[in-house]
Amino acid sequence: MDQSESLENAEFAATVRQWLEENLTGEFAELRGKGGPGSEHEFFERRLAWDRHLAAAGWTCIGWPAEYGGRGATLEQQVIFHQEYARANAPARVNHLGEELLGPTLIVFGTDEQKQRFLPGIRNVTELWAQGYSEPGAGSDLANVSTTARLDGDRWVINGQKVWTSLAHVAQWAFVVCRTEPGSTRHQGLSFLLVPLDQPGVTVRPIQQLTGTSEFNEVFFDDAVTEADLVVGAPGDGWKVAMALLTFERGVSTLGQQIGFARELDGIVALAEAAGATDDPHIRERIARARIGLRVMRAHAVRALADADPGQASVQKLLWANWHRDLGKLAMDVQGAASLIGPDHDHAGTRSVITDPEHLELAEWQRLFLFTRADTIYGGSNEIQRNIIAERVLGLPREARA
């Protein structure tokens, strides 16, 4: 990067920082730090209003080309935006699946008509999206998809079930991987469809998590329909499109994610110091390892952004998922027995009775511990990531399949 680019990026960072300082005020001030993992239910409508406020100021989809409503921001500027956003402790976004995943996929693979129809709604946050990948028999192993879609005149008719479908209960649309060629197996015969969720053939049932919240859902398709031209890429090319989308999932936003991780670690260190846990050499060692792990994650994330190697994304997922899971365990261990008592206890230690799990009260670190149990599963389990690295990067023999 030459000096002029460095100056331009510094000015961009200052602009982002100033805008966030001036706008995370008033009705939005209370949203700082809200809506993160395990707290997705917090202030949803107000966070939706915040996302639309961002959109009105041109701060959504900043990496998209200007012709599609974006800023055409460079890779460095996109990283800067996500880092400044995280440093400001701004609220979790409600439009990640549309803005960071589907939008870039449509720009690459979509028809002109699909881009004109869907990109403005994503950019303006007027239409929210869910991801229809996993199924009861095809979690991280997407090639085992059995949900079917058959072309009937001018529309696709869809039957099957998706599970762990994040935000389906608040989304208007879903991008759904279906098997469209009868008799096909594994990667062959899949198609990537855009499906409206508000129709009689779609049933959405929230799945309650350990945290008591329901960020994701199971979705049933019973003769649900979508228009014939709402297939992204050619019919049968769904695997290629689906895999391309996953590369966007682990893009520049991961560097902003690490700012949040650093904030969590700092909070745990403060907690350890207050509880006297730093007198324990084992706890001090784990804190030091967590600091080192953050540095390793950042170095790898920066390298991965410049490297098209498909294995880099899997290595990155393994790094942050295991690190964050261990951080949740550390948060509990530095508190000792006190970690078992939450805000639903009075000073005498009496537990209040909770009859509605959705109103379960958890302390911040309890929520972190419980939610991070899932980090090594969602988005591709550890086992799947290791298989990808072994088979596609190291060239080892493929795992035997039944």
TrEMBL record:
Superkingdom: Bacteria
All copies of domain Acyl-CoA dehydrogenase/oxidase C-terminal, residue ranges: 236-394
Key words, A-Z: FAD, Flavoprotein, Oxidoreductase
Cofactor field: FAD
One Pfam family it belongs to: Acyl-CoA_dh_N
The keyword Signal is assigned to this record: no
Record-linked SUPFAM superfamilies: Acyl-CoA dehydrogenase C-terminal domain-like (SSF47203), Acyl-CoA dehydrogenase NM domain-like (SSF56645)
Acyl-CoA oxidase/dehydrogenase middle domain span: 130-223
Acyl-CoA dehydrogenase/oxidase N-terminal domain location: 8-122
Record-stated family: Belongs to the acyl-CoA dehydrogenase family.
PANTHER family the UniProt entry points to: ACYL-COA DEHYDROGENASE (PTHR43292), ACYL-COA DEHYDROGENASE FADE29 (PTHR43292:SF3)
Protein name: Acyl-CoA dehydrogenase
